[in-house]
Amino acid sequence: MSINTTDLSRPGQAHVDSYWAVTAGEEVAGCDPVQGDIDTDVAIIGAGYTGLSAAYHLARDFGISAHVLEANRVGWGCSGRNGGFCSVGMGKEGVEAWVRRWGRERALDSYDLTRQAVRLVADILEREKIDAQRTAEGGLELAHKPNRVEGMRAQAERMQRDFGIESQFLDKATLARNFLDSREAHGAVLHHEGFALHAMRYVRGLARAAQKYGAILHNNSPVTGWERKSGQHHLRTPGGIVRARQVLIATNGYTNDTLNPWTLGRLLPVLSNIIVTRPLTQAERDSVSWQTYFKIWDTRRLLFYYRLLPDNRILFGARGGVEDSPAEHSYRKAWLERRLREMFPPLDKVATEYFWYGWVCLSADKNPHIGTTDDRSVHYALAYIGQGVALASMAGRLTAQRMAGDSKVDYGALLSAPLPKFPFPALRRVYQRAAYAYYSYEDERR
Ligand SMILES: Cc1cc2nc3c(=O)[nH]c(=O)nc-3n(C[C@H](O)[C@H](O)[C@H](O)COP(=O)(O)OP(=O)(O)OC[C@H]3O[C@@H](n4cnc5c(N)ncnc54)[C@H](O)[C@@H]3O)c2cc1C
After folding, report:
1. CB-based burial of residue 102 (10 Å sphere; 0-12 exposed, 13-18 middle, 19+ buried)?
2. Pocket of ligand 1 (CB under 6 A)
3. 67, 216 contact by CB (below 8 A)
4. Does the model's pTM come out above 0.90?
């Protein structure tokens, strides 16, 4: 069974009805669809953080004007839909597991790359004067059950002692006094790096910056066919053929199995869902001691992520759901509303004003990957496992360097491992259902 998350027969679709889409201002101008055939050095498929960061760095640092082909519109995929957490770290394993696998030096190099990714986003925002409402640096990881507190405290101490990764354990009383109080917050680790931002403003700012240096962006231009002829890639779009020497696949959770024979069976898109409430009053914030704009997540494997937005609305999200159907979406919305009320009973009258969802991208080994397919002129940067704000921006830059001819660019131990195929790709949704059932059991175990 193929998995296809992008409907190529309906290009130019509107954005989901998200808080970001409504509050981001103007769409990016000058993104005409492909009209007629085009010859270019580099074609990039997908106008999210990956594709646009690659286009930006190719143009700014190497004078290469890539053509970015987007099926819908700039930021239509996850880059315009996410929670806006710009975070250190990647994949589902922690640093300790990486050390066991590759040794200390390579593991810490990979961790350091993710720190650089956060710094890269901060630098782009500043250099390009993008008003993405970035918050102060910091984030809170909450112990969602009392039996998670000791493990969390011990891990924070090990991170500090063994790897010099700064983090600070907070007990429940300190957490409530200084940050927030919730039925599902029994202690926390305060992480000092990473921040939150406005997802759509960042992606649009990045697109405009890429255009400023010479990148050419095409909305409404789905790649519907792909042939290799006389040393070139021929990408078919409704408006014409784009002939390129090198191609970057930057379609992440919106990659159709049918895009290219190589992508078939390597990715598993899974839904993540978000609600945004009306703004809280000061009395409502006081009722749960919510004093922080830091990004917040919990110790579940299927974790909840949330934050207070600059206008004091709550953004509250979680993974869940397998089907892209109206029934599934209305179930997920109601489920998020109920879980928010359960965590913060004093806020039970606070209405939801936005709900949306998007396809997060998983790989079989639950790690992100950057590389080339069997054809060295086809690059990919995929499978950020719900952590692409920083990482996709970095992946775009690294890929730009490789595409511009720097073969020594180091992707680090984790990212450079080839993207594996799922063992029985037709069963991907079956694995997902089984994994979700197991994770939910583990998450709620006393
Ligand atoms: C609800 C939700 C919350 C999330 N929260 C966070 C978070 O807080 N922090 C974090 O770090 N990450 C988060 N993520 C993940 C993060 O948003 C992604 O990892 C990141 O945006 C991926 O960027 P991208 O550029 O690779 O892909 P995308 O932004 O998804 O862009 C892919 C684009 O490819 C286009 N496309 C697909 N097929 C074709 C084709 N054939 N031709 C042309 N174009 C095509 C699509 O239209 C799409 O616009 C979240 C994701 C979701 C869904």
Report:
1. middle
2. 6, 8, 45-51, 69-72, 76-79, 81-85, 87, 222-223, 250-254, 256, 259, 272, 274, 317, 358, 360, 384, 386-389, 392
3. yes
4. yes
User: Between the CA atoms of 125, 131, 133 and 137, what dihedral angle is there, to the nearest 10 degrees?
Assistant: 20
Helix (H) / strand (E) containing 113: helix 104-127
Residue 265 is encoded by which pair of tokens?
A: 């069976």
Alpha-carbon distance of 251 to 38, in angstroms, equals 21
Q: 10 C-alpha vs ligand 1 centroid, how far in Å?
A: 18
Range list of β-strands (E), 8-132: 38-45, 67-69, 85-86
Distance in Å, CA 79 to ligand 1 centroid: 5
Please tell me whether residue 76 adopts helix, strand or coil conformation.
coil
Backbone angles phi, psi at 212, to 5 degrees: -55, -35
Q: Residue 292 in contact with residue 180, Cβ under 8 Å?
A: yes
Three-class SS of residue 82? Answer: coil
**What does the chain come to in residues?**
446
Q: How far apart are CA 218 and CA 109, in angstroms?
A: 36
Token couple for 152: 């969390």
Domain 19-82+200-267+364-437 matches domain 139-192+270-362 at the CATH topology level: no
Strand partners, 68: 44, 217
Q: Which atom of ligand 1 is nearest to the CA of 356?
A: 1
86 Rama class: left (phi>0) / alpha (psi -120 to 50) / beta: beta
Determine the Cα–Cα distance for residues 44 and 57; give it in Å rounded to an integer: 13
Cα–Cα dist 442/446, whole Å: 9
332's tokens: 């997920």
The amino acid at residue 419 is: L
pLDDT higher at 158 or 239: 239
pLDDT in tens, 26-41: 999 999 999 999 999 9
Over the stretch 350-392, which tens digit does the pLDDT of each residue have?
A: 999 999 999 999 999 888 999 999 999 999 999 999 899 999 9
Tell whether the torsion through CA atoms of 433, 437, 438 and 444 is positive or negative: positive
Average pLDDT over residues 82-100: 88
Q: Which architecture, in CATH terms, is 139-192+270-362? A: 2-Layer Sandwich (3.30)
The tokens 């010479």 sit on which residue?
A: 214
CATH architecture of 19-82+200-267+364-437: 3-Layer(bba) Sandwich (3.50)
Q: Where are the domains of the chain?
A: 19-82+200-267+364-437, 139-192+270-362
Classified as helix, coil or strand, 264 is coil
Handedness of CA 178, 179, 182, 188 (dihedral sign): negative
